[in-house]
Amino acid sequence: MQALTKISCTVTLLLLSFSLNGMPGNDTVRYELLMSSQMLKSVNLAPDFIPSLDISPERHVLLSSKTQFYLLGWGGMTPLGKSATSGTIRSFAFSSDSLLMVIKNDEVCYFDAKGVLTRLLKLPGSEMGICAGKDVMYVYDRSTTKTNKAVYVVSPGGKYAVLLEVTSPITSAVELNNMLLFSSGNMVVQFDMKTKEYKILASLSKEKTVQSLTVDSSHNRIYFATDRAIYAVNDTSAITISDGIGGILKYFDDGLLIFDPAKRFLLRITGIEEELKKPKTEKPVISQQSEPGLLKNQNIIDLVKSGLSEALIISIIKRSKAEFDLSIDAMIKISGEGVSSAIIMEMRQAMKRQASQTQIK
Question: Which CATH number is 20-277 given?
Fold first, then answer.
């Protein structure tokens, strides 16, 4: 347990101020690196995470492997409950009354007081996801083999009924204002639970698949993501938030969480709504008082090992103050850590830009 809690010493939030794709760069938008494979490696953890996350009643991030839950908070990362020795955890979500509901194999289970998964009901398939509604839970079919895929409503007491059916796998779902929003294929769809009418809110090119969606209920803002990009729904169009990262989304505490289970990577973005509301012609206002810490060589190495794309890392460097060591030995070291020549070139350019700005002053 002591080794597990040491992660709190290594989790240094990288408050990086750089622009959203297609938006003016200023200090409104912040990226915070909450977890990376390197951080986990430093405490000898390498869970095989599943594509699911939620926030616990204690405001910790809940993640899971196929057999074990983990809580990520300021105290570090610690296992939650007992390992599921029989069966595979596929998805999970907290109910409106803070009960942890879990899809294990083809069953809906709940976490009892002893930290044991207890069966509530059996489902018609094993490739299911789960999300919470106001008074119910929704279970949706992610199967690629079945002809019809359904969303089921699970009511208190363990009874379930079919809410809707579609032909493509349902990858994510969330309730908003008596509407069920779900992603299927390359689309985000709204289902009115009163009128039973469908409405396509956003549609990407056919080769793309929406992996996840979430909502900022305070602003009625819908976010969705593929494996490589994040979008926000704006009226009848989609705005690209980032074309360098993607994954599983969760909006929490005025921030957007982005989780890539394969890369063991968790990022939080804040200030998106303020940026989206600004007129496109508005000039950025740089606030020196809220400026983040200087980027250094090790920060770049950590970002590369976290799996961020080369283009996104270069964008970070362009939008941040830096204090890079460009000596021969330092360059040899970061090259050996996998930092590309294009990123190294941008590091050099960043130091030249700062030197010229200093001379002008």
Answer: 2.120.10.30
